[in-house]
What we know:
The complex is a heterodimer. Chain A is α+β, with helices and mostly antiparallel strands. Chain A has helices at residues 6-12, 104-113, 145-150, 156-162, 164-183, 222-237, 243-247, 282-289, 302-315, 320-325; strands at 24-25, 39-42, 45-57, 60-72, 78-82, 87-93, 96-102, 123-127, 133-138, 142-144, 196-199, 205-207, 212-214, 262-263, 266-270. A five-stranded parallel sheet of chain B has the order 3-2-1-4-5, with helices on both faces. Helix content of chain B is 42%, strand content 22%. The longest helix of chain B has 28 residues, at 52-79. The mean pLDDT of chain B is 93. In chain B, helix 3 packs across helix 5. The chains are: A alpha+beta, B alpha/beta. Chain A binds chain B through residues 86, 88, 93-96, 98, 101, 103, 105-106, 185, 213, 215-223, 226, 264-265, 293, 296-298, 300, and chain B through 42, 44-48, 50, 107-111, 135-145, 148, 151. Chain B: It comes from Halodesulfovibrio aestuarii. Chain B: InterPro entries: Rossmann-like_a/b/a_fold, UspA. Chain B: Residues 5-161 form the UspA domain. Chain B: This is Nucleotide-binding universal stress protein, UspA family.
Amino acid sequence: MEKSAYDILKHYMPTFPRKHAGKIITNTTEFMSIDYGDVMYLDGKHYLVNKNLSERRFGLEDPKYWVKRCKELETGKHQIIKLEFYEKFDISIGTIRSSCYRSPRKESRILKLVDGDMRFMQGKTVLDEKGNCVRILDIIYGSELDVALDHLPVSHEEYFNTIFPDYFAKFIGAVKAIAHLHLNHEQHGDIRRDHLLIESDTKNWRWIDFDYAFGLRENPFALDLFGLGSILLLLVGQREITAQQIGTLEQSQTEAVTAEDMALAMPYRLANIQKRYPYIPDTLNNICMHFSAKNSVFYSSVTEFVSALLTCFHELPVFKSARRRYPEV
Amino acid sequence: MNIYNILVAFDSSKPSFEAVEYTARMIRSIPDVLVTLLFIERLPDKDLFESEALWRAECAELVVEYKRKLAKARGLLLSNNIHKKAINEEYIISCSSPFEDAKVCTTGESIAQDILAIQEEGNHGTVVIGRRGISKEEEFLFGSVSAELLRKFTKCALWVVSSNCD
Lengths: 329, 166
């Protein structure tokens, strides 16, 4: 095995500057020290590290040193490589705090389960020389759902009648994908608007990032359901509708909004979307209201949630043309 | 169904001890009563641990603790003058247990469903469960066994014992 990455880079990328060539890595345990110019040698392939990925949250860049964007030198294909990293941290959902764990093994298992199922990100797991669980992922080129919604230059009413029906059909497909995980005793664990990507060329909606795990729960799938409900509210409203936004409206534009109209566990966010947009049909709004502070009976499973969504899709006039376009729903 | 064939769902928590005590006080003067302490083993997910060895060690500690508390619950019934012949124990092991294999095990995905299955199988006419008193938000985010039981149980009596029931 070469000690310097330069020899291998010279072969595959003759123009790669020698001064940036780093080390050949076969043991990824110390992932913090793996950086641009290093080459990871995994399962018989060479991967040039281009950069650490980071997550943008609340306007801040949060580097994820265990996630590298790489180029497979043998094929030239760009991939994302997630290195083995365990951590435990607390998350807040409204006023509730919960412990969350990062589990490479969980993600590996799900990758295997969804192999070939394009409703999910695709990738494989290899072990480095120390037995670390390394996930090599295909990059999905596309936009995060919230970004796609933000870029729509239309009013809500136009959105609701033209774009939303297709998005709703796609959403049902995405929810069915999560139901498939649950049927196989797996949870996604981190269902968020930015973990559902709309692929640019296929327009497929695809779930990413499955490495969150939680401790004992009475209903291990309830958090996934909560995440799906939050995405539904986003889709129906076109964007997140906050109490502050409603407060700026003229009184004649909206009925008085009460605490019960807001989302349970996220009291700043409107769940009773009909209060803001009165043309939202009752059947659809009733599903949104299952995630409101008013509600006391929750969906007990994603299957139950899917069934309610399907009723809307097959019955409401707004979905008439989408029903022809998405007969599989 | 025999209403005096009582199933107490016990999970070693404080509310479940209170449910056992409540049951004991309710039935101690009734003859021919049968109480089954049902423990549905819940072990942490292997995903939460960096190695199999760490997970097994945690599971081993938990199982010892569960069985110690189950014995304590039995003691609570005995100290309330329930005859030892009137007390049964049913310990349902976790399907992911690293220590035991069993024909009947629990996946941990629906404790309420597990209780329902044992109730039907054992012809229990009364089911008792303690309630933690969680908020609506917690129930929404993490689920609640007692709320799930209230939704699903239709064939027998369900006693939901809240903390500090005197």
